[in-house]
Amino acid sequence: MAARAALDRRVLLTRTLTLTAAILAAGLGFVVFLQFGASDGFDAFDVLRALLIFASTFWLAWGAFTALAGLTTRPPAVPRDAGPLQGMTAILVPVYNEDPVATFARIAAMDASLRATGQRDHFHFAILSDTRNEEVAASERIWFLRLLADTHGEGRIFYRRRTNNKGRKAGNIEDFIKRSGAAYTFAIILDADSLMEGDTMVEMVRRMQAAPDLGLLQTLPTVIRARSRFGRIMQFAGAFYSPIFARGLAMMQGRTGPFWGHNAIVRVQAFAQSCGLPELAGRPPFGGHILSHDYVEAALLARAGWTVRVDDDLSGSYEEAPENIIDHAKRDRRWCQGNLQHSRLLLAPGLKPWSRFVFLQGILAYIAPVFWLAFLAASIAAPLFSPPIDYFPIEYWPFPVIPVSQVSKALLLAVGVGGLLFLPKLLILLDAALRGRTRGFGGAIRTLQSTLTELLFSSITAPVFLMFQTRSVLQVLRGADGGWPAQTRGDGTLSFRDAWAASHWIVTTGVIVLAFAQWLSPQLVPWLLPVALPMVLAPLLISWSSRPSRTTLFTTPAERQAAPVMALHDRVLARWGADLDQRDAA
């Protein structure tokens, strides 16, 4: 109990310092902009823009100070049970119109990895199909038989397809818990593209056994298999930055941690008792089934008194990610709708205060880009609402009074925003160099080059993401339901025509922004170019970044030395691919 009380005090201190620092940074941005805006006469429009700066800067500052918390804190040692594994663990693999060859090959690889641990008999796989495409479903049944034959998995690997996919992924898992959950002590929840080492699964069970109050343990998945320029940059960023951000997040969330929907283990009894999800009144996007169910399930576990924790030290947990900006934006559209839907749950009874704050963070993550866009629009339109400058404010004074230049204030604000964006990543680079972590990324020089290139790429593409996120928010607010589209996997190369079809509206917006700025506020044009030019060039950026990467930059540890389960997966795919070729030839 003393250790728990000490941890709670550390968590409270980390939360307080991080939140205070973010508010102070946002407040400083508010004050500096008010001084800048008041230079030509103070009006309500200046207050509006300053408030938009406050909201937007708070979100940037929160992310920056989360990274600083990760760099300056260390989570406590986690207990683990070194004794025999207790009970059975179900490994749940929900699938929805996925390629069964790729998905089932991952299961075969994980089964082989578990065999190597000597603990395979304590684990069962359950493939939970929500597939609506009959052709894909038929292929699933064929390849399930092949999976059983390859793994001798009768009695350990199961497949079922729901006739009604009510509740989508959350409903799929809930259906399994209701029907079969009593047979299992724990359940490891994966996605169709998840891959996990057998040793990692065993270690997760040991940590659950050592902490009877632990309801959910989340790993930090590492992105693998990226091939495109966009994919490999995102893969590098996830492998290099995410462990630090996750550590800061862990120290702020404490026992009220996150659930990201996959690559996590749950205590089945806790999940069954606490995580029944309601169907919200009204029609989608704000009503109906809860889309971002993972955050809600974590909040419900915490409400019931269970600990929810993320252990960033758990390696051997992998996933794949979109290969281009368009596929990323499609997935982000679903997340946007799910996060904004959480506005219906902010006042739900019994939730922990931090759970409510997590919901608010998720909402702000998508509203903040709208604030930035509104700030730009308000700045361009400001001359229409500002009174003309009075160069002779003193009666009978024959000489004009020239307003003091406020360019320094604008530069200070720009430097501050840039610092919140770039400084945390540069500090992570410095920390990695000092601790020797850069060796896994190709050495200090190669990691420096990769980091600077990633910073440049993320800066250039930020306006494009801003536009996609803004459109998503506006679609949700006007009542458009994005549904739950199947994810696109494999080759993500896009032609210029495809990129143009998906982003021509961004180009149009960029041209309009520059035209209005030139007409109403010519002095703003140089400041707007870093935002507007990427918008005008969006199709080129999208198409170029979707093409296969040839550079030696963005190397990650998983690329330099493939994990054992990845090698097993490659062997299974090669064997099954050869069988497919022989079948096609026949």
How does the SSE layout of this entry go?
Layout (H helix, E strand, L loop, with lengths): L1 H36 L6 H29 L16 E7 L4 H18 L5 E7 L4 H18 L5 E5 L6 H13 L5 E4 L5 E2 L1 H13 L3 E5 L3 E2 L5 H25 L10 E4 H7 L18 H11 L3 E4 L6 E3 L5 H17 L11 H33 L21 H29 L8 H34 L18 H25 L4 H12 L1 H9 L10 H4 L3 H22 L1
Parallel strand pairs: 1-2, 1-4, 2-3, 6-9, 7-10
Antiparallel strand pairs: 4-8, 5-10, 6-8
Helix pairs in contact: 1-2, 1-12, 2-7, 2-11, 2-12, 3-4, 3-6, 3-18, 7-13, 9-11, 10-11, 10-13, 11-13, 11-14, 12-13, 13-15, 14-15, 14-16
Question: Can you walk through the features of this model?
Answer:
- With 586 residues, this protein is of the alpha/beta class.
- Helices cover 61% and strands 7% of the residues.
- The strands form two sheets. It has a seven-stranded mixed sheet, with helices on both faces.
- It starts with a helix and ends with a helix.
- Mean pLDDT is 90; it is low at 399-406.
The overall pLDDT average reads 90
String of helices and strands: HHEHEHEHEEHEEHEHHEEHHHHHHHHH
Helix content: 55-70%
Question: How would you sum up the global shape?
Answer: globular
Low-confidence parts: 399-406
What is the rounded distance between the termini? Answer: 67 Å
Q: What is the makeup of the main sheet?
A: 7 strands, mixed
